[in-house]
Structure of Sigma 54-interacting transcriptional regulator:
Amino acid sequence: MPSENPNLSGRHDVWIATSQDVRSIIAQARIYLCAGAWQSAHELLAPAVVATTAATDANPETLEALGLLLVACSRLGHIEHLAQGTAVLREALALGVPLDPESRALATLHALRQMIDRGNYAAAASVAATLCEPWIDKVSCWTRSRVELVAAWLSARLGDLEAAERSALHGALLAEESRSDSLLADALVAVANVRSLQRDLIGAQRILAQAVEYYWRVGDGIGRTTALVNRGLALLFEGDVVGSAAAFTESEASALSLGRQDSLLRSRLGLGWLAARGGRTEQARRLLLPAWRAARRAGLKREEVLALEYLSEAYLWASDPRRFLPRTRAALGLCRQQADFLDPEGDISLECRIREAMLAHVEEHPSQAERVALEAVEHARRQRFPWEEAEAWRVVGVARVAMGCLDGAFEAFGQSLDLFLGLGEHFERWYVEAWLHVLDGMRVAPRSNSTADAEAHSPRQPQGGSSNVGEVQHTEDLKHWLRHAQVGPLAWNSSRAGLSEASRKPTVQATAPPEIAPDTPPPPSPTWSALGLVTRSSTLRDTLLLSETYAAESIPILILGETGTGKDLLARGLHDLSGRGGRLVPVNCAAAQRQLFAAELFGARRGAYTGAVDHRRGLIHEASEGTIFFDEIADLDPEAQGYLLRFLDSGEVRPLGDTRGERVETRVLAATRRDLHALVASGSFREDLYMRLAAVILVLPPLRDRLVDLPLLIEALWLRAGGAPEDRETVFTPEVLRELRQRPWPGNVRELSHVVSRSIPLLRARGAAAARARIQNRAGLGWHDGSHGQGQARSHPASSGDAGSAAARMDSGGGSGRDPALAPTDVTPPGRASAISPSPHRILAKDPEGNWPESLLRNALDVAKGHVPTAARILGISRSQAYRLYKQLRGSRG
C-alpha cells in the first residue's frame, strides 16, 4: 500500500521491496537466519529490495524484509548498509508509519542497537520501554528473542545487572522455542556476559564454552569469533593469562579471515590489555592506540573508552610509571570524561576511579590514593561489582603501606583476597597473598626483611588449586607485579631492607637501580619559549610535554583555557612541532558568518551564490598538508557545526556549487574558553562534534594558578616590548611583585602583557614612581573602565560559567571602549598639573599654539605596536583622524 509519508525514504539511499511475493521470500529468509546462514539470507533478501532514493512504497512487509536483511548485515559486517537501513526504520517509527508487530519489533531492535553503539543510553531506555506494551506478545519467538538480547545489552550498560540477566535468560528460552541453535548460542553469550559483569567467572566460562560448541555445530564462524572474544575476557578476569591470550589470538585470526573489523578491534583491545597488565608498555601502545583510533572512526563509544582505560593502565604498570605521568593523566582524564558521559555509575567509570587512585600513589600522594580507592570500594559495593571492589581494596592496601599504616594495609589486602577467592581468580590473588606474607612477616619478625627471605616464601597454595594455577603463578606477568618499583611487595621489601642496611652502614652509597630511579621530566622544547610560553610551573610544563607527545599525530586536539592563557600560542607550537609542510590556518569562529561559513571553509565555484564572481579556495584547502585551527569553536552556530562535522567524518571537501568532493589531508586543532560540557548538555553544541574534536584535550592553566611564573613572564614580556633590561627592576620591584601575586588576573597573560607594555612609555614619560603607582592601582584586576577604586577587583571570572568572561567582554567591545591604562589617574602631587593628563572624552587636543602633541601619538603607537586603528581607539579619536596624524608624524620625521 502507498505510504502516508512520502518523505519517509526520500532522504536516504535505502532498500524498498518491489517483489509481489515478498512474504514467501521472508519465510525462506527466516529459515536461513534461524540456521545461522547469514550470507544465504542476505543473498535471498537483497534482490527483494531495490536501492532507490525516490521511494513511494514503504509497507510493513517491505520494512520487515529490510529488518531481516539488517540482521544479516550486522553479522556480515556491512556497516554502511546497516546505518542506512536503520535510519529508514527509525524514521518509520518516528513518523508513526502503520506497522504490524513483527515489523515494529525489528525496527525497534535495530534502533536500540544503533543507540547503544553510539552511547545514547537514555534515548535507548525510552525506546525499550515500548517493549512492555501488549503488541510485543504477537511477535515471533525468534524476533522476540533478539529483542530481549538487545534489551539485556542495554540493561547491562545501564548497570542494572538483574534486569540484564532476566532479559538474557528470557531470550535464551525464546531461542530454544524457536529451535535455532545459532540464536541459542547468541543468547548463551549474552547470559555469559552478564555473569562476567557479575564476576561469576567460572559460570561465565562454562556458558561460553557451550556457546562456542553451538556456533561450531552450525558453522557460524562470526558468532564463534564473538564468543572467543568474550571467552578471552572471562579468562582474563579469572586470572588465566595464558588461556586468555590464546583465546584473543584465536579470535584475532578468525576476525582477520572473516574480515570482521569490529571483532578484530575487540580482540586487539584484549591483547593490549594483557600486554598492559604484564608491563609490556610498548607492545600495549602498538595495539591500543590504533584500536582507539579505529573505535573513534567506527563510532564505537565503549570500545573507544576501553582503549583509553587500558592505555592508562599500560603506563601505570610500566617499569617506571613516572616516565609516563603526562600521558597517563591525559589518557585517564579523557577516559573519565567519556566514561562519565556514557554512564557515571557504570563499570568503566568505576575502573577509571581505581586507576586514578593508582596514579595518585605513583605521584606520591598516598592519602589521596587511599581516599579515591575507598570511594571506589563504595561505588563497587553499590553497583555489585566484586572484581572491581577487590581491585580497589588492593590499591587501598598499597596506599596504606606507603603511609606507614601496615595494620590497615594488612586488613585491606585481606578484604581483597577474600573477594578474589570468592571469584575463583588465579592471578591477582597471588599478588595480594605476597603482600600479606610480607606484611605478616613484618608483624611476626620485623627484622627479617631481605628480598631473598621474601622470595623464599611463595604465596599460600589455595585448597583445590588446579595444575595451571602454578603455571600462572610463575609467568613473567606475575613476576612483574611482584617486583614492580612502586607497588610490588618484593620491591618494597627490598627497598626497606636496603634502607635498614644503609642506616647500619652510612659510608655505603645506596644508588637506586636505573629502572626504579627517580625520573626527572625532560625540559619542554625550546619552541615554546620562542613563542612566549615560558614557565617553571609543573602544571603548564606537563601540558607542554603532553603537547609534544601528540604534536606529530594526526588526531584532533581540543585546547581549553580562559581568555589570555595562550591557546593560540599552543596551537602554533603544535603546528611547528608537527613537522608538517603546510601552513597553520587560523579560523575565528566567533566572527564566522553563518551564511558564508561553508564557502569560507570549503570554497565556492563561480556563481554558487550572489557575489561569487570567481572560483574561491576554502580555508581547508589552504591548510592542506598543514594545520587548521578553529579558535573559539564554541561560538559556532549549529548549522556551521554540521558543516565542520561533515568534514571531520569524511575528510572530504566539496566546494559550494561543485558536484565532486576531494579528500584533503590536514590536522584539526580547536580551542575555546567556554565550558563545552555545559554547552553539550544545554544542546548549544553538538555532542558528536565534541566527541570528534576531543580526541586529546590540553588544558592551559590560568595565570592565578601559575604565579610562580610571574617574574619570568614579566622579564620576557618586558624585553619583547622593547624595554631596557636595567629599567625593569625599577618598576617591578619586590614589593610590586608581592602585590601582583595577590591579584586575580582575570585577563591572564594577555592582561599582564598589556600591563608590561603600557608601563614602558609611562616610565619614559613620567618616571618609575608613576609606572609603579599605575601598576599597583590597576594591574591584575581585569578589564574595567576605572570605576573601581584602588585595589578593588571585579568578580573573579572563574566563578562564572564562562571562563575569562571579563576579557571576553573587552574583546567584544563591552565596557568603556578605551584602554584603561591610558585613562586619567591621580598620581601627581596636588596642585601640580600632569604632563600627560587627557580629558575623559577627548584625549587628543591641539596645544595653545595650534599644534598636535606628537608625544601622545607616539606613545599610543608604541602601545598599539604600530597599529593605527588600535592607537585611534586608545586615544579616543576617529580612525581617519589618526591616519592623518600618522602621516603628519611620518612627514615631520622625514
